[in-house]
Amino acid sequence: MKTRTKVLSMIAVAILLLNSNFSIAQDAKVCKPHDFTIGVLGGPNLSILYAGSEEMNKNYGFGVGYNVGLTTSYALNNHFSIAAQVNFAQLSSERKDMQPLLTNSPLQTTPYTLYANYQKIESYDYLEVPVMFRATVGNKVKFYVDGGAYIGFIANASVKSSGNSMLYKDLAGQIPNSYDNTVYSMDGKENTTSSVNTVSFGVTGGLGVGYTFGRHSLVFDTRYEIGLTNIRSNTILNGRNNLQTIMAGIGYNYVLFR
Asked: 231 CB contacts (<8 Å, ≥6 apart)?
């Protein structure tokens, strides 16, 4: 929640700064009306599962992934444009503490939930399509801020567990499931695509800077996504979670039509 508040505050400040600079930059032709630009963009990301409704899907930390895709933009006038992307995003989030066994773990042989201390990494491959409204200032060096919404389509999902632990009857790890102190391997991997909703939706916004030479430009882009929909398809079995993602990327753009 603190991360979301900080990022949204930065975007709001950037918008104010852009507005304050419009009067200074009126004579600079940032982009020509009706410019249609295409490009590529890629880089790393940090994502996290949040809004967990059950103990099994709480206390996640950030996981590292990557995103790569195609970008387009259409200039409405010298400062405003509509930007869209088609991205492949590999997202992940991890948890390493005392937690319930995985739903389909072969070690879950009791009618009550068993707990163990291990690491769990959940990975999600999405095809994402963000559409954003963008405001830009500058000439050779351009600064922009954008915001809008995105839709995501799940391509693959998996969960990987690792570590060694005794099994316990309680989350605090005070009541062993057996008294022979047996330590079990938690290593395993499971495809979980069928337990993830096919479509996700959220809001997104970011900041960027670009250097222009003729019809070409190099850009550095940062963006923040807040998932508004639950990604779990079976909330009774798997609870609820949403995704948040911080993305960074380096890209190349070309003005195709002018």
From this structure: 49, 124, 154, 196, 197, 200, 241, 242, 243
